[in-house]
Amino acid sequence: MALKVVPLRNIYESLDGSVIVLLGTLIAVADVIETTGAADLLAQVLLDNLAQGSAVVALALILIVTMTLSDFMNNVATAAVMCSIAFSTAEQLAVNPDSFLMAVAIGASCAFLTPVGHQNNTLILGPGGFDFGDYWRMGLPLEILVVLVSIPMLLWVWPL
Fold first, then answer.
1. Label partner for 152 (CA 20 to 30 A): which of 7, 13, 63, 74?
2. Which helix (H) or strand (E) holds 35?
């Protein structure tokens, strides 16, 4: 665009308005989750019932929940919603939030279980002759591998 190789009109025409509206709406939803205290409540439920006060377990749960949501939602929307929950979780544990926020970034990028989680998965569904369930065969081991590698790396690079 800056070099005038691609006309500005082509760029505007290639933008999908529904995606822009979706992202804008979900950013507002993420803000509502934070300002109403829902993020604090969800973080407290996560800590009390599942993590039982363990920062490492909470970190793994944030990663896994984010990965699961990104299989059904847009990854940017997932990150927007999960960031406030991850930050609140780290705040309640009184630990460095960097590792929790990076867990959200990693998890939001891992949409391997469904063809609807990422546009690339959707694009290869028909031409590849895949069924909805075919994504689980390779996606589940890949997501397990991501969790097994990510948690130690997050703790090493961004200590709690």
1. 74
2. helix 17-35
First-to-last alpha carbon distance for the chain, in angstroms, is 43
The predicted model scores a pTM of 0.74
Q: Cα–Cα distance between 21 and 84 in angstroms, integer? A: 21
Distance of alpha carbon 22 from alpha carbon 44, whole angstroms: 28
Tell me if 135 sits within 8 A of 124, measured CB to CB. no
Mean pLDDT by groups of 10 residues along the chain of 160 residues: 70 63 66 69 72 86 88 80 86 90 93 78 76 84 94 94
Give the residue extent of every domain in the chain. 17-157
Q: Are 39 and 84 in contact (CB under 8 A)?
A: yes
The CA distance from 88 to 82, in Å, is: 10
Distance in angstroms (rounded) separating the CA atoms of residues 142 and 9: 40
